[in-house]
Design brief:
By secondary structure, the protein is of the alpha+beta class. It has three helices and seven strands, in the order βαααββββββ. Helix 1 packs parallel to helix 3.
């Protein structure tokens, strides 16, 4: 049986304290991205800035607040930025992409956690996120037991609704061939 990646997206219903922590995590991930963009865009042939990571930002006094949220979310944002940088310099792309842009507070926001940093309880309709706790979730379909969890992306749309998109590796039974077009 071939394996494929599939995402299950569910609505989150956080309480007041969880909403505050989720918004802090969205904000910290956005700050890390924007600082990486500033660092990347400040490069000139005359000036080469030093390499910046989420760890170098955390050790600066003005960014102490980054220690309040999950380190995994910030590391994933760094990985996303490195992939964007890789695609920017990729010569074999059919369509060139432009320089990375800043992320704004308005609009869609998101952060990603790896499989070690979350657990889904389908009986109690909760998902435990690192440094946030158990958040109520609306499960409209069940994830099979024999799947391999990959990551969860927590997102917030402009209206303030929050979602969890759980990425799993799942075995797929191909449909039998009918001989028709």
């Amino acid at each position: 049986m071939p394996e494929t990646l599939k995402a299950f997206k569910y609505r989150l219903y956080p309480d007041k304290n969880q909403t505050i922590m989720l918004n802090k995590t969205f904000g910290c991930a956005r700050v890390v991205w924007n600082k990486l963009v500033d660092n990347f865009n400040s490069w000139t042939p005359d000036y080469m800035p030093q390499v910046m990571t989420e760890q170098t930002l955390k050790h600066q006094d003005e960014y102490e607040f980054l220690k309040e949220v999950s380190n995994c979310a910030l590391q994933q944002k760094l990985r996303d930025f490195n992939e964007t940088k890789h695609q920017y310099f990729n010569k074999s792309r059919k369509v060139r992409i432009g320089r990375p842009h800043h992320k704004k507070k308005r609009g869609r926001q998101s952060f990603r956690l790896t499989k070690e940093k979350f657990t889904l309880n389908q009986e109690l309709n909760t998902i435990r996120l690192e440094k946030i706790g158990k958040v109520r979730i609306k499960l409209d379909r069940i994830i099979p037991d024999e799947v391999d969890y990959r990551s969860v992306t927590v997102s917030k749309d402009p209206s303030g609704k929050m979602y969890a998109s759980i990425l799993v590796k799942i075995n797929v039974d191909p449909k039998p061939l009918t001989g028709r077009m």
